[in-house]
Amino acid sequence: MRRCTPLLSALLLLASCLRGGQERAELDRTVGLASAQGIQISVEGGLASVRHIEAGAAELWLSAPSQRLTFTAGDTAPMTWALRLLNAMPGLTATCDAPPGLTCTALALPGERPTVTDLTLTLDGPGQYSLTLTPPGADDDTPFSVALLSDIQEELPRVQDIYDRINALPEVRYVVSAGDLTDHGDEATLIEFQRAMQGLNVPLYATCGNHDIMDGSFGDWSRLFGRHSFHFTYGQVAFTFMDSASATIDPIAYGWLEEWLEEASDSLHVFVTHYPIIDPDGYRNGSLRSRQESHKLLAMLAKGGVDLTLYGHVHTYLTFTNAGIDAIISGGGGGWPERLDGIGRHFVVLTLDPSDSTISRELVQVD
Amino acid sequence: MGDTRGHLRIIATKGTGLVLMLLGALPILLTNASTKVIHLPIYMLTTGFALFSSATAADIYGSLFSGRPPGRAPEDPARSEVEAGYRFIHDPLMDNAHSLVVAGRYYHHRLLAEVDASLTPPSRNLRVSLFGGYRLLRTINRDSWLDCKAGLTWRRYATEGFTTLTTELFAVGRLDLGRVLPTLRGAFSELGAGAALRFIGYDALGGGVGEDSEVIPLFRFAFGVYLGDRGSEVKLFYDHRHDDELGGLALASGFDGALGHFGLEGTWWVSTHVGLRALVAAGSAHLARFTVVVRE
């Protein structure tokens, strides 16, 4: 760990770092900020990674359906920008607001795949512009579905059949993942994962799992996927993704969680993290490394009115409640399956109805 | 060690430990921790770890102190003991930093009663444990024993807004290693195993302790050395439990949380009746505890 000062427990001769997620949380603060050629781009909430920027062109990986971006153009900035939006919901529309006395236009067109949008942004001169990206159904309060898919890991080469099953479900707007997309989290396999996602017709929003940090190069996830912990609202339903890849949540992220819980207190709220906060079987111990932290977190979620908690890490399918909140463990993406449970590769379709605050679920077995 | 027979015993203990670890790990690996098979293998794995580690520590001890033990077991172990002091915990997530601690234990023939409590004044966090037990086995001079204990631990986290009640059954024993090998005089090993049922309640849901429950395995082992003639001792221990102030070991890796915590505890008797005890341990938090102990 680069930033983790090893605390040598003199008597134990053990190097121990209590804040395993600190570096990732600090990286999260920088996601969505970029500048080049006299322009600065800032993505609200860090909900997109600016993967590439050059004169008049930028490429962004979106980690939320709706986006609000600020472009601050200087005197030397190009006035026409070609933005390539990856991991975007199909049918994205764009609107642009210009500073007083100036104009701007934003034209969004479908890209080479359903999850790519090509956007042309025309500015009118130096100043601060805001660009709003809105997918279909963003503000509706009608029921919609998402798929839960986690723990793909070493079965990445076989994931297309899962994507085919998801593609066949038109009601699924996007996929949410509790992490362990890859087995080692190195740059090459993260890129391979995103290449495989070209076969998926809807975006996938994910927090990282413990396997995604095995490589230790946290910058790769930030650059390719964006934030490890983030929060968005779509269709009147709030989604919070929290990084628990080190079997703990960093105090920085707890600070964000407090804000997000407050923000979503009146909404249907889905909480997604990799490690089950409590494993229903304590002998398996597939949960956060400290039960005290588990109960602290559950106390926060119960107080914040969270409606559903989604977990991965354990490679099976389980439903239960924690702190009175419905919970699902689904680690069925293919990674080293648990035996004797009668469950193979699978994903879960969640149908969320914000008008009556209900969530239904359907297990889809792929193997 | 210059003791072929003793050396063979240590090698045999290490081998037994490795075999147990293998036998415990195999079903876990083959089923990826299926809940249908994991319960017994967890104890086999941890017991194997304990045997291998203790035998390795004994090997080192024998090499260092053979024939010149730094201390010996007390001739007349105390029947009662009371301690009080201060505990510091560095935990980035819980409000447990500065606490007052008190504890006491009393033996009446083979019966045992224990109490242990801590109070963290700034956060009003409180822990109280009450245990009763029975000494199932003991040697004549009481340097080796096996206790069976049952008890309750109540924890209140006012700042974090939850309460837990833990019921547990635990068997723990100490073996004076001089009984196994003369060259290991002055060293001892401890092994304990059991299970706990925990109940959790959240203030946001009314504050009882019935909202969640969890069964967890308990396992603990230690290797220790006596110091001096008054029964002073120091021991290095591993505790598999994840539900106390220390939790599972933080390694800042993708494997965090699998192991429990490690610690070192020492007691130095400055007189026949008065001693100083220090404990340092590392898990998801770092702990240091210093107490004054009085025994009779």
Please describe what this structure looks like.
The complex is a heterodimer of chains A (367) and B (296). Chain A has helices at 22-28, 160-167, 187-196, 218-225, 251-263, 291-303, and strands at 7-9, 14-16, 33-36, 39-43, 48-54, 57-62, 67-73, 80-86, 93-97, 105-110, 116-122, 127-134, 144-148, 172-177, 204-206, 230-234, 237-242, 268-273, 308-311, 317-322, 325-330, 346-353, 358-365. The two termini of chain A are 38 Å apart. In chain A, strand 3 and strand 4 (39-43) form a beta hairpin. The model of chain A is unreliable at 7-15 (pLDDT under 50). Chain A has a 6-stranded mixed beta sheet with strand order 16-17-18-19-21-20, covered by helices on one side. A 5-stranded antiparallel beta sheet of chain A has the order 3-4-7-12-9, with no helix packed on it. In chain A, strands 5-6-8-11-10 form a 5-stranded mixed beta sheet, covered by helices on one side. In chain A, 16% of the residues lie in helices and 36% in strands. The radius of gyration of chain B is 20 Å and the shape is globular. In chain B, helix 1 (4-31) packs antiparallel against helix 2. Helix content of chain B is 19%, strand content 48%. Classes of the chains: A alpha/beta (367), B alpha+beta (296). At the A-B interface, strand 2 and helix 6 of A face strand 7, strand 8, strand 10 and strand 11 of B.
Total of DSSP H or I helical runs spanning 4+ residues of chain B: 2
Q: Give me the CATH architecture of the largest domain in chain A, please.
A: 4-Layer Sandwich
Query: Which two chains share the most extensive interface?
Result: A-B, 60 and 61 residues
Round the Cα radius of gyration of chain B to an integer and report it. 20 Å
CATH topology of the largest domain in chain B: Porin
CATH architecture of the largest domain in chain B: Beta Barrel
- Looking at this structure, what is the CATH superfamily of the largest domain in chain B? monomeric porin ompg
CATH class of the largest domain in chain A: Alpha Beta
What can be said about the biggest beta sheet of chain B? 12 strands, antiparallel, barrel
What number is the mean pLDDT of chain A?
A: 95
Output the CATH homologous superfamily of the largest domain in chain A.
Metallo-dependent phosphatases
Beta-strand percentage range of chain A: 35-45%
Low-confidence stretches of chain A: 7-15
Please indicate the count of domains of chain A: 2
Total domains of chain B = 2
Please give the alpha-carbon distance between the first and last residues of chain A: 38 Å
